[in-house]
Amino acid sequence: MERRDFLKTGGVALAGAVLLPHLVESCAPNTQTSRMLNHFGVSEGDLKKVVATALERGGDYADLFFEHTFRNLLSLRDGEVNQASSHIDYGVGVRVVNGDRTGYAYVENITLSEMLTAARTASRIAEGGNKFTSFNVTEKAYKNYYPIVRSWTNVSVKEKRPYVQKLNDRCFALDNKVSKVMASLSDETSYILCYNSEGILCSDYRPMVSLSAYCIMEDGGKRENYRSTRSFRKGKEFLTDDVIEVIAKEAVEGASRMFRAIQPKGGEMPVVMAAGGSGILLHEAIGHAFEADFNRKNTSIFSDKLGKQICDANINIVDDGTIIGNRGSINFDDEGTVTQRTYIVTEGVLTNYLHDRISAKHYGIASTGNGRRESFRHNPIPRMRCTYMENGELHEEDIIAEVKNGIYAETFTNGQVQIGAGDFTFFVKSGYLIENGKLTQPIKDINIIGNGPKALSDITMVASNLKIDDGAWTCGKDGQGVPVTMGLPSVLVGGLTVGGGG
Protein backbone atom coordinates (compact mmCIF):
# COMPACT_ATOMS: atom_id res chain seq x y z
CA MET A 1 0.00 0.00 0.00
CA GLU A 2 1.41 3.35 -0.92
CA ARG A 3 0.50 5.02 2.36
CA ARG A 4 -0.20 3.96 5.94
CA ASP A 5 -0.43 6.89 8.35
CA PHE A 6 -1.40 5.45 11.72
CA LEU A 7 -2.98 7.62 14.38
CA LYS A 8 -3.99 6.79 17.95
CA THR A 9 -7.04 4.99 16.62
CA GLY A 10 -7.07 5.56 12.87
CA GLY A 11 -5.19 6.09 9.64
CA VAL A 12 -5.64 8.21 6.57
CA ALA A 13 -5.24 8.55 2.84
CA LEU A 14 -6.77 10.96 0.37
CA ALA A 15 -9.23 11.36 -2.56
CA GLY A 16 -12.95 11.16 -3.26
CA ALA A 17 -15.50 9.46 -5.50
CA VAL A 18 -19.21 8.74 -5.68
CA LEU A 19 -21.02 5.96 -3.84
CA LEU A 20 -21.04 2.71 -5.74
CA PRO A 21 -24.24 0.71 -6.29
CA HIS A 22 -25.04 -2.34 -4.18
CA LEU A 23 -24.65 -4.98 -6.88
CA VAL A 24 -23.79 -8.55 -6.02
CA GLU A 25 -23.38 -11.90 -7.66
CA SER A 26 -23.57 -15.32 -6.10
CA CYS A 27 -20.46 -17.22 -5.14
CA ALA A 28 -20.41 -21.03 -5.34
CA PRO A 29 -18.94 -22.09 -1.98
CA ASN A 30 -18.42 -25.76 -2.68
CA THR A 31 -16.07 -25.31 -5.64
CA GLN A 32 -14.14 -22.39 -4.17
CA THR A 33 -13.77 -23.93 -0.72
CA SER A 34 -12.48 -27.19 -2.17
CA ARG A 35 -9.92 -25.23 -4.18
CA MET A 36 -8.92 -23.28 -1.08
CA LEU A 37 -8.45 -26.44 1.01
CA ASN A 38 -6.14 -27.69 -1.73
CA HIS A 39 -4.43 -24.29 -1.89
CA PHE A 40 -3.43 -24.52 1.78
CA GLY A 41 -2.79 -28.27 1.62
CA VAL A 42 -5.24 -29.15 4.41
CA SER A 43 -8.23 -31.46 4.68
CA GLU A 44 -11.49 -31.20 6.60
CA GLY A 45 -10.10 -33.86 8.89
CA ASP A 46 -7.08 -31.65 9.63
CA LEU A 47 -9.34 -28.73 10.49
CA LYS A 48 -11.41 -30.81 12.89
CA LYS A 49 -8.32 -32.19 14.58
CA VAL A 50 -6.73 -28.75 15.10
CA VAL A 51 -9.92 -27.23 16.52
CA ALA A 52 -10.43 -30.25 18.80
CA THR A 53 -6.87 -29.79 20.08
CA ALA A 54 -7.47 -26.05 20.59
CA LEU A 55 -10.42 -26.90 22.85
CA GLU A 56 -8.90 -29.89 24.64
CA ARG A 57 -8.44 -27.79 27.80
CA GLY A 58 -11.92 -26.31 27.47
CA GLY A 59 -13.30 -23.09 26.07
CA ASP A 60 -16.44 -21.59 24.54
CA TYR A 61 -15.27 -21.32 20.95
CA ALA A 62 -12.28 -21.78 18.66
CA ASP A 63 -11.46 -20.80 15.10
CA LEU A 64 -8.77 -21.07 12.43
CA PHE A 65 -7.85 -18.26 10.00
CA PHE A 66 -5.71 -19.22 7.00
CA GLU A 67 -4.20 -16.48 4.84
CA HIS A 68 -1.99 -16.35 1.76
CA THR A 69 -1.40 -12.78 0.56
CA PHE A 70 0.67 -11.40 -2.34
CA ARG A 71 1.51 -7.67 -2.29
CA ASN A 72 3.23 -5.83 -5.14
CA LEU A 73 4.34 -2.20 -5.42
CA LEU A 74 5.58 -0.12 -8.34
CA SER A 75 6.96 3.36 -7.58
CA LEU A 76 7.90 6.26 -9.81
CA ARG A 77 10.30 9.09 -8.95
CA ASP A 78 12.26 11.49 -11.13
CA GLY A 79 10.19 10.75 -14.19
CA GLU A 80 10.51 6.99 -14.42
CA VAL A 81 9.38 3.82 -12.70
CA ASN A 82 12.49 2.88 -10.75
CA GLN A 83 11.36 0.72 -7.85
CA ALA A 84 9.43 -2.53 -7.58
CA SER A 85 8.85 -4.75 -4.59
CA SER A 86 6.85 -7.82 -3.66
CA HIS A 87 5.86 -9.38 -0.36
CA ILE A 88 4.27 -12.74 0.41
CA ASP A 89 2.49 -13.53 3.68
CA TYR A 90 1.42 -17.08 4.52
CA GLY A 91 0.18 -18.74 7.69
CA VAL A 92 -2.67 -19.64 10.00
CA GLY A 93 -3.89 -18.20 13.29
CA VAL A 94 -5.57 -20.31 15.99
CA ARG A 95 -7.88 -18.67 18.52
CA VAL A 96 -9.59 -20.03 21.62
CA VAL A 97 -12.21 -17.98 23.47
CA ASN A 98 -13.22 -18.71 27.04
CA GLY A 99 -15.45 -16.00 28.49
CA ASP A 100 -13.41 -12.76 28.48
CA ARG A 101 -10.14 -14.64 27.95
CA THR A 102 -8.68 -15.22 24.50
CA GLY A 103 -5.77 -17.49 23.62
CA TYR A 104 -4.10 -16.83 20.28
CA ALA A 105 -1.17 -18.36 18.42
CA TYR A 106 -0.07 -18.51 14.80
CA VAL A 107 2.37 -20.37 12.59
CA GLU A 108 3.89 -19.44 9.23
CA ASN A 109 4.37 -23.04 8.11
CA ILE A 110 1.07 -24.82 7.56
CA THR A 111 1.74 -28.40 8.54
CA LEU A 112 -0.52 -30.46 10.77
CA SER A 113 2.23 -30.74 13.38
CA GLU A 114 2.81 -26.98 13.61
CA MET A 115 -0.91 -26.21 13.60
CA LEU A 116 -1.41 -28.60 16.52
CA THR A 117 1.42 -26.89 18.40
CA ALA A 118 -0.24 -23.51 17.87
CA ALA A 119 -3.58 -24.96 18.96
CA ARG A 120 -2.08 -26.28 22.21
CA THR A 121 -0.46 -22.89 22.88
CA ALA A 122 -3.75 -21.05 22.40
CA SER A 123 -5.58 -23.62 24.54
CA ARG A 124 -3.25 -23.08 27.50
CA ILE A 125 -3.88 -19.32 27.44
CA ALA A 126 -7.67 -19.68 27.49
CA GLU A 127 -7.93 -22.87 29.56
CA GLY A 128 -11.18 -23.71 31.33
CA GLY A 129 -14.90 -24.12 30.67
CA ASN A 130 -16.72 -26.77 28.67
CA LYS A 131 -14.87 -29.27 26.53
CA PHE A 132 -15.97 -29.99 22.96
CA THR A 133 -15.91 -33.57 21.73
CA SER A 134 -17.27 -33.52 18.17
CA PHE A 135 -17.17 -31.14 15.21
CA ASN A 136 -19.10 -30.83 11.95
CA VAL A 137 -18.21 -29.08 8.69
CA THR A 138 -20.84 -26.87 7.06
CA GLU A 139 -19.78 -24.81 4.06
CA LYS A 140 -21.23 -21.32 4.27
CA ALA A 141 -22.50 -19.55 1.15
CA TYR A 142 -22.09 -15.83 0.68
CA LYS A 143 -22.53 -13.12 -1.95
CA ASN A 144 -19.49 -11.78 -3.73
CA TYR A 145 -19.13 -7.99 -3.44
CA TYR A 146 -15.89 -7.75 -5.40
CA PRO A 147 -16.15 -9.75 -8.63
CA ILE A 148 -13.13 -9.17 -10.87
CA VAL A 149 -12.39 -9.60 -14.55
CA ARG A 150 -8.67 -10.32 -14.24
CA SER A 151 -6.65 -11.31 -11.18
CA TRP A 152 -3.51 -9.39 -10.23
CA THR A 153 -1.66 -12.70 -10.02
CA ASN A 154 -1.80 -12.78 -13.82
CA VAL A 155 -0.53 -9.22 -14.42
CA SER A 156 3.18 -8.67 -14.97
CA VAL A 157 5.30 -5.66 -13.99
CA LYS A 158 5.74 -5.02 -17.70
CA GLU A 159 1.97 -4.60 -18.10
CA LYS A 160 1.55 -2.36 -15.04
CA ARG A 161 4.50 -0.06 -15.62
CA PRO A 162 3.02 2.01 -18.53
CA TYR A 163 0.04 3.09 -16.39
CA VAL A 164 2.26 4.54 -13.68
CA GLN A 165 4.38 6.28 -16.30
CA LYS A 166 1.27 7.65 -18.00
CA LEU A 167 0.04 9.08 -14.68
CA ASN A 168 3.34 10.92 -14.25
CA ASP A 169 3.32 12.23 -17.81
CA ARG A 170 -0.28 13.40 -17.58
CA CYS A 171 0.45 15.43 -14.43
CA PHE A 172 3.31 17.24 -16.16
CA ALA A 173 1.16 17.86 -19.25
CA LEU A 174 -1.63 19.52 -17.27
CA ASP A 175 0.41 22.43 -15.85
CA ASN A 176 3.91 23.75 -16.55
CA LYS A 177 4.35 24.58 -12.85
CA VAL A 178 4.58 20.87 -12.00
CA SER A 179 8.16 20.24 -10.88
CA LYS A 180 8.00 16.71 -9.51
CA VAL A 181 5.61 13.76 -9.36
CA MET A 182 5.78 10.68 -7.18
CA ALA A 183 3.40 7.98 -8.34
CA SER A 184 2.73 4.45 -7.16
CA LEU A 185 0.62 1.42 -7.99
CA SER A 186 0.07 -1.29 -5.41
CA ASP A 187 -1.94 -4.46 -5.85
CA GLU A 188 -2.83 -7.21 -3.41
CA THR A 189 -4.34 -10.67 -3.65
CA SER A 190 -5.43 -12.58 -0.55
CA TYR A 191 -6.65 -16.17 -0.27
CA ILE A 192 -8.63 -16.69 2.94
CA LEU A 193 -9.98 -19.86 4.60
CA CYS A 194 -11.92 -19.84 7.90
CA TYR A 195 -13.12 -22.72 10.06
CA ASN A 196 -14.56 -22.70 13.58
CA SER A 197 -15.88 -24.93 16.34
CA GLU A 198 -19.46 -24.28 15.19
CA GLY A 199 -18.52 -26.27 12.08
CA ILE A 200 -18.65 -23.26 9.74
CA LEU A 201 -16.20 -23.42 6.83
CA CYS A 202 -15.86 -20.56 4.35
CA SER A 203 -13.31 -19.18 1.91
CA ASP A 204 -12.68 -15.93 0.08
CA TYR A 205 -10.55 -14.38 -2.63
CA ARG A 206 -9.86 -10.73 -1.77
CA PRO A 207 -8.34 -8.36 -4.36
CA MET A 208 -7.11 -4.80 -3.75
CA VAL A 209 -5.54 -2.05 -5.84
CA SER A 210 -4.36 1.50 -5.08
CA LEU A 211 -3.09 4.13 -7.54
CA SER A 212 -1.62 7.39 -6.26
CA ALA A 213 -0.04 10.61 -7.52
CA TYR A 214 1.76 13.11 -5.28
CA CYS A 215 2.24 16.33 -7.22
CA ILE A 216 4.74 19.08 -6.33
CA MET A 217 4.45 22.47 -8.04
CA GLU A 218 6.68 25.56 -7.98
CA ASP A 219 5.72 29.15 -8.78
CA GLY A 220 7.60 32.34 -7.99
CA GLY A 221 9.84 30.65 -5.46
CA LYS A 222 6.90 29.01 -3.64
CA ARG A 223 6.31 25.29 -3.52
CA GLU A 224 3.01 23.47 -2.94
CA ASN A 225 1.88 19.83 -3.07
CA TYR A 226 -1.23 17.71 -3.25
CA ARG A 227 -1.95 13.97 -3.32
CA SER A 228 -4.73 12.09 -5.08
CA THR A 229 -5.45 8.38 -4.60
CA ARG A 230 -8.02 5.80 -5.64
CA SER A 231 -8.31 2.34 -4.07
CA PHE A 232 -10.79 -0.47 -4.71
CA ARG A 233 -11.27 -4.20 -4.42
CA LYS A 234 -10.87 -4.62 -8.17
CA GLY A 235 -8.67 -6.47 -10.62
CA LYS A 236 -6.59 -5.30 -13.59
CA GLU A 237 -9.72 -3.76 -15.15
CA PHE A 238 -9.27 -0.89 -12.65
CA LEU A 239 -6.39 0.49 -14.73
CA THR A 240 -7.94 2.76 -17.35
CA ASP A 241 -7.17 6.11 -18.97
CA ASP A 242 -10.19 7.53 -17.15
CA VAL A 243 -8.88 6.77 -13.64
CA ILE A 244 -5.47 8.15 -14.60
CA GLU A 245 -7.08 11.38 -15.81
CA VAL A 246 -9.15 11.78 -12.64
CA ILE A 247 -6.17 11.27 -10.32
CA ALA A 248 -3.84 13.51 -12.37
CA LYS A 249 -6.33 16.37 -12.55
CA GLU A 250 -7.16 16.16 -8.87
CA ALA A 251 -3.49 16.20 -7.86
CA VAL A 252 -2.51 19.07 -10.18
CA GLU A 253 -5.56 21.24 -9.55
CA GLY A 254 -5.25 20.68 -5.80
CA ALA A 255 -1.61 21.74 -5.73
CA SER A 256 -2.32 24.75 -7.96
CA ARG A 257 -5.10 25.95 -5.66
CA MET A 258 -2.70 25.93 -2.70
CA PHE A 259 -0.78 28.91 -4.15
CA ARG A 260 -3.87 31.08 -3.60
CA ALA A 261 -4.73 29.59 -0.22
CA ILE A 262 -4.35 31.35 3.14
CA GLN A 263 -4.49 30.33 6.77
CA PRO A 264 -7.63 31.90 8.21
CA LYS A 265 -7.93 33.54 11.60
CA GLY A 266 -8.66 30.94 14.27
CA GLY A 267 -11.52 30.69 16.74
CA GLU A 268 -14.84 28.95 17.23
CA MET A 269 -17.05 29.10 14.17
CA PRO A 270 -19.54 27.12 12.07
CA VAL A 271 -17.96 24.56 9.76
CA VAL A 272 -19.44 23.08 6.60
CA MET A 273 -17.93 19.63 6.10
CA ALA A 274 -17.69 18.91 2.37
CA ALA A 275 -19.07 15.69 0.91
CA GLY A 276 -16.64 12.77 0.74
CA GLY A 277 -13.41 12.87 2.74
CA SER A 278 -15.06 14.74 5.60
CA GLY A 279 -16.36 11.31 6.52
CA ILE A 280 -13.23 11.20 8.67
CA LEU A 281 -15.43 13.01 11.22
CA LEU A 282 -17.71 9.96 11.36
CA HIS A 283 -14.91 7.41 11.32
CA GLU A 284 -12.48 8.91 13.81
CA ALA A 285 -14.49 11.17 16.08
CA ILE A 286 -17.63 9.05 16.28
CA GLY A 287 -17.27 5.66 14.55
CA HIS A 288 -14.62 4.20 16.85
CA ALA A 289 -16.80 5.02 19.83
CA PHE A 290 -19.55 2.87 18.23
CA GLU A 291 -17.29 -0.23 18.17
CA ALA A 292 -18.67 -2.67 20.71
CA ASP A 293 -15.44 -3.58 22.50
CA PHE A 294 -15.08 0.01 23.74
CA ASN A 295 -18.71 -0.03 24.89
CA ARG A 296 -18.50 -3.49 26.46
CA LYS A 297 -15.59 -2.22 28.55
CA ASN A 298 -17.38 1.09 29.31
CA THR A 299 -14.56 3.16 27.80
CA SER A 300 -16.71 4.73 25.05
CA ILE A 301 -18.67 7.89 25.66
CA PHE A 302 -21.62 6.06 24.04
CA SER A 303 -21.54 3.12 26.49
CA ASP A 304 -24.85 4.15 28.10
CA LYS A 305 -26.47 5.67 25.01
CA LEU A 306 -27.86 2.60 23.20
CA GLY A 307 -31.50 3.23 22.31
CA LYS A 308 -31.23 6.94 23.10
CA GLN A 309 -31.46 10.03 20.91
CA ILE A 310 -27.91 11.29 20.27
CA CYS A 311 -28.42 13.67 17.32
CA ASP A 312 -30.97 15.25 14.98
CA ALA A 313 -33.77 12.95 13.81
CA ASN A 314 -32.77 13.56 10.17
CA ILE A 315 -29.45 11.77 10.68
CA ASN A 316 -28.87 8.12 9.76
CA ILE A 317 -25.39 6.57 10.02
CA VAL A 318 -24.48 3.26 8.39
CA ASP A 319 -21.50 0.90 8.48
CA ASP A 320 -21.60 -1.10 5.28
CA GLY A 321 -19.60 -4.08 4.04
CA THR A 322 -21.72 -4.67 0.93
CA ILE A 323 -20.75 -1.92 -1.55
CA ILE A 324 -19.57 -3.49 -4.78
CA GLY A 325 -15.80 -3.15 -5.26
CA ASN A 326 -15.37 -0.87 -2.25
CA ARG A 327 -12.07 -0.96 -0.37
CA GLY A 328 -13.86 -1.55 2.94
CA SER A 329 -16.21 -4.28 1.69
CA ILE A 330 -15.85 -7.89 2.80
CA ASN A 331 -17.88 -10.94 1.80
CA PHE A 332 -17.56 -12.21 5.37
CA ASP A 333 -15.57 -10.89 8.28
CA ASP A 334 -12.42 -12.53 9.66
CA GLU A 335 -14.50 -14.72 11.97
CA GLY A 336 -16.59 -16.15 9.13
CA THR A 337 -19.68 -13.99 9.79
CA VAL A 338 -21.43 -12.89 6.59
CA THR A 339 -21.12 -9.16 6.01
CA GLN A 340 -24.10 -6.81 6.16
CA ARG A 341 -25.26 -3.21 6.08
CA THR A 342 -25.64 -2.07 9.69
CA TYR A 343 -27.54 1.01 10.83
CA ILE A 344 -25.65 2.48 13.78
CA VAL A 345 -27.84 5.57 14.08
CA THR A 346 -31.44 5.54 12.86
CA GLU A 347 -33.35 8.83 12.85
CA GLY A 348 -30.97 10.22 15.44
CA VAL A 349 -31.22 7.20 17.79
CA LEU A 350 -28.20 5.00 18.55
CA THR A 351 -29.59 1.63 17.44
CA ASN A 352 -26.52 -0.62 17.11
CA TYR A 353 -22.90 -1.02 18.07
CA LEU A 354 -20.45 -2.72 15.70
CA HIS A 355 -19.89 -6.29 16.92
CA ASP A 356 -17.55 -9.19 16.61
CA ARG A 357 -18.45 -12.60 18.11
CA ILE A 358 -17.18 -11.79 21.62
CA SER A 359 -19.07 -8.52 22.01
CA ALA A 360 -22.18 -9.96 20.35
CA LYS A 361 -22.26 -12.77 22.90
CA HIS A 362 -21.83 -10.25 25.72
CA TYR A 363 -24.87 -8.29 24.48
CA GLY A 364 -26.87 -11.42 23.62
CA ILE A 365 -27.27 -10.58 19.93
CA ALA A 366 -25.89 -11.72 16.57
CA SER A 367 -22.58 -10.38 15.30
CA THR A 368 -22.83 -7.54 12.78
CA GLY A 369 -19.89 -8.97 10.79
CA ASN A 370 -17.34 -6.43 12.05
CA GLY A 371 -14.75 -8.88 13.45
CA ARG A 372 -11.65 -7.95 11.46
CA ARG A 373 -7.89 -8.44 11.70
CA GLU A 374 -4.81 -7.19 9.86
CA SER A 375 -3.52 -10.68 9.12
CA PHE A 376 -3.37 -14.24 10.47
CA ARG A 377 -0.92 -12.92 13.09
CA HIS A 378 -3.63 -10.86 14.77
CA ASN A 379 -6.71 -11.48 16.85
CA PRO A 380 -9.99 -10.19 15.32
CA ILE A 381 -11.63 -7.19 17.01
CA PRO A 382 -14.61 -4.94 16.14
CA ARG A 383 -13.63 -2.72 13.19
CA MET A 384 -15.46 -0.49 10.75
CA ARG A 385 -15.88 -1.27 7.03
CA CYS A 386 -17.38 1.67 5.07
CA THR A 387 -18.95 4.17 7.46
CA TYR A 388 -21.12 6.97 6.13
CA MET A 389 -24.09 9.23 6.82
CA GLU A 390 -27.09 8.88 4.54
CA ASN A 391 -28.38 11.76 2.45
CA GLY A 392 -30.48 14.57 3.82
CA GLU A 393 -32.84 16.68 1.70
CA LEU A 394 -30.97 19.98 1.27
CA HIS A 395 -28.71 21.39 -1.43
CA GLU A 396 -25.12 22.13 -0.44
CA GLU A 397 -25.39 25.75 -1.61
CA ASP A 398 -28.37 26.28 0.71
CA ILE A 399 -26.30 25.06 3.66
CA ILE A 400 -23.39 27.35 2.76
CA ALA A 401 -25.81 30.25 2.39
CA GLU A 402 -26.74 29.90 6.08
CA VAL A 403 -23.18 30.69 7.23
CA LYS A 404 -22.12 34.32 7.60
CA ASN A 405 -18.53 33.67 8.70
CA GLY A 406 -17.06 30.17 8.80
CA ILE A 407 -15.06 27.64 6.84
CA TYR A 408 -15.70 24.92 4.30
CA ALA A 409 -13.46 21.93 5.12
CA GLU A 410 -12.73 19.84 2.03
CA THR A 411 -9.69 17.54 2.34
CA PHE A 412 -8.01 16.04 5.39
CA THR A 413 -4.61 14.44 5.94
CA ASN A 414 -4.67 13.11 9.50
CA GLY A 415 -6.28 13.32 12.92
CA GLN A 416 -6.49 12.01 16.46
CA VAL A 417 -9.34 11.06 18.78
CA GLN A 418 -9.60 10.06 22.43
CA ILE A 419 -12.24 7.31 22.56
CA GLY A 420 -13.28 7.86 26.18
CA ALA A 421 -13.92 11.59 26.01
CA GLY A 422 -14.56 11.79 22.27
CA ASP A 423 -12.22 14.78 21.82
CA PHE A 424 -10.64 15.05 18.37
CA THR A 425 -8.18 17.08 16.32
CA PHE A 426 -8.16 16.94 12.51
CA PHE A 427 -5.68 18.53 10.10
CA VAL A 428 -7.43 20.13 7.13
CA LYS A 429 -5.28 20.24 4.00
CA SER A 430 -7.62 22.44 1.96
CA GLY A 431 -10.97 24.21 1.93
CA TYR A 432 -12.49 27.68 1.61
CA LEU A 433 -13.56 30.61 3.70
CA ILE A 434 -17.29 31.15 3.91
CA GLU A 435 -18.18 34.84 3.92
CA ASN A 436 -21.77 36.07 3.83
CA GLY A 437 -23.04 32.73 2.61
CA LYS A 438 -20.52 32.24 -0.21
CA LEU A 439 -17.26 30.34 -0.74
CA THR A 440 -14.45 32.88 -1.19
CA GLN A 441 -10.73 32.52 -0.44
CA PRO A 442 -9.09 29.07 -0.55
CA ILE A 443 -7.61 28.02 2.82
CA LYS A 444 -4.98 25.46 3.80
CA ASP A 445 -3.16 23.79 6.68
CA ILE A 446 -5.53 24.34 9.59
CA ASN A 447 -6.67 22.25 12.56
CA ILE A 448 -10.25 21.55 13.54
CA ILE A 449 -10.75 20.74 17.21
CA GLY A 450 -13.91 19.46 18.86
CA ASN A 451 -15.77 16.69 20.63
CA GLY A 452 -17.26 13.88 18.53
CA PRO A 453 -20.61 13.39 20.29
CA LYS A 454 -21.09 17.16 20.60
CA ALA A 455 -20.19 17.71 16.93
CA LEU A 456 -22.70 15.01 15.96
CA SER A 457 -25.41 16.66 18.04
CA ASP A 458 -24.47 20.05 16.54
CA ILE A 459 -25.12 18.92 12.95
CA THR A 460 -28.18 20.95 12.00
CA MET A 461 -28.27 20.63 8.20
CA VAL A 462 -27.58 17.65 5.90
CA ALA A 463 -27.29 17.84 2.12
CA SER A 464 -28.33 15.28 -0.48
CA ASN A 465 -24.87 14.87 -2.08
CA LEU A 466 -23.39 11.84 -0.31
CA LYS A 467 -19.95 10.76 -1.57
CA ILE A 468 -17.84 7.82 -0.47
CA ASP A 469 -14.16 8.71 -0.35
CA ASP A 470 -12.30 6.04 -2.32
CA GLY A 471 -8.79 6.87 -1.14
CA ALA A 472 -6.44 4.28 0.34
CA TRP A 473 -7.69 4.66 3.90
CA THR A 474 -6.15 2.32 6.47
CA CYS A 475 -7.58 2.33 9.98
CA GLY A 476 -5.20 1.59 12.85
CA LYS A 477 -6.42 0.17 16.16
CA ASP A 478 -4.65 -1.89 18.82
CA GLY A 479 -1.53 -2.05 16.68
CA GLN A 480 -3.15 -3.49 13.56
CA GLY A 481 -4.49 -1.86 10.40
CA VAL A 482 -7.36 -2.81 8.09
CA PRO A 483 -8.62 -1.23 4.84
CA VAL A 484 -11.69 0.97 5.27
CA THR A 485 -13.60 3.74 3.54
CA MET A 486 -15.92 6.48 4.72
CA GLY A 487 -18.26 9.11 3.39
CA LEU A 488 -20.50 12.04 4.16
CA PRO A 489 -22.94 14.36 2.48
CA SER A 490 -22.17 18.03 3.10
CA VAL A 491 -23.24 18.95 6.65
CA LEU A 492 -23.23 22.04 8.81
CA VAL A 493 -21.66 21.70 12.25
CA GLY A 494 -22.82 24.63 14.37
CA GLY A 495 -19.53 25.32 16.09
CA LEU A 496 -15.99 23.88 16.04
CA THR A 497 -12.67 25.37 17.09
CA VAL A 498 -10.52 26.29 14.11
CA GLY A 499 -6.78 26.68 14.61
CA GLY A 500 -5.63 29.06 11.89
CA GLY A 501 -2.99 31.62 11.14
CA GLY A 502 -3.68 34.06 13.97
What does this structure look like?
This protein is α+β, with helices and mostly antiparallel strands. It contains 10 helices and 28 strands. The strands form 7 sheets. It has a 7-stranded mixed sheet, with helices on one face. The longest helix has 18 residues.
How is the topology of this model organized?
Elements: E1 5-6, E2 11-12, E3 17-18, E4 25-27, H1 29-40, H2 44-54, E5 61-77, E6 80-98, E7 101-107, H3 112-125, E8 138-139, E9 142-144, H4 157-174, E10 178-196, E11 200-219, E12 222-232, H5 241-258, E13 267-273, H6 280-287, H7 292-296, E14 317-320, E15 341-346, E16 349-350, H8 357-363, E17 371-372, E18 381-382, E19 386-389, H9 396-401, E20 405-417, E21 423-435, E22 438-451, H10 452-457, E23 459-462, E24 467-469, E25 474-477, E26 480-483, E27 485-488, E28 491-499
Helix pairs in contact: 2-3, 4-5
Structure characteristics:
alpha+beta; seven-stranded mixed β-sheet; 10 helices; globular
Which shape, going by the Cα principal axes?
globular
- The count of β-strands is 28
Q: Provide the helix percentage.
A: 10-25%
Radius of gyration: 24 Å
- Which residues form runs of ≥5 with pLDDT under 50? 1-26
Strand order of the largest sheet: 3-24-27-19-14-15-16
Distance between the termini: 37 Å
Please state the average pLDDT score: 91
Largest sheet: 7 strands, mixed
Please state the structural category: alpha+beta
Total number of helical segments? 10
- Tell me the strand percentage band: 35-45%
